[in-house]
Write a structure and sequence with these properties.
Length: 142
């Protein structure tokens, strides 16, 4: 039986590897930020988790780039909110999660084909003075 090399499959595999952003891949790209973290912070980052007091670079290592950044102004002053979103169909089928699923080159995101999609802020990180002030996480199933 003869096996043949399929360049299209190889290219698709490469795109998937490059497109997937994990804490380990982000740490490899930015070891200086990781090295300045405490061992407890490093353990959280490796698990894709954040904690109060993390700075923006540490949050990027753990979670990647946010899907949306907003500014909140209230009686306590101004803060910055990083939102990490998911898109689901009306019947709960997950269409999108994670920054790296946004765009595939010149092709628009596939989840835009679903006009009835629902956007959920699955995770929010609030910064005040460049440090994490609060963390909001959506409960599974809601």
């Amino acid at each position: 039986m003869k096996t043949s090399f399929h360049p299209i499959l190889a290219l698709a595999g490469l795109v998937l590897l490059v497109g997937c952003s994990t804490p380990a891949a982000r740490i490899d790209k930015n070891p200086a930020v990781f090295d300045r973290c405490t061992p407890q912070q490093q353990a959280l980052i490796k698990q894709g988790k954040v904690a109060l007091g993390f700075d923006e670079e540490m949050v990027r290592l753990a979670l990647g780039d946010p899907d949306r950044i907003t500014t909140r102004t209230d009686a306590a002053g101004e803060s910055e909110v990083w939102s990490y979103v998911t898109y689901e169909t009306d019947d709960g089928v997950l269409l999108y999660t994670g920054y790296y699923h946004r765009f595939w080159g010149p092709i628009y995101p596939y989840y835009l084909d679903y006009p009835t999609r629902t956007e959920h802020d699955r995770f929010r990180v609030v910064f005040k003075g460049g440090k994490v002030l609060s963390i909001e996480e959506e409960e599974p199933g809601y």
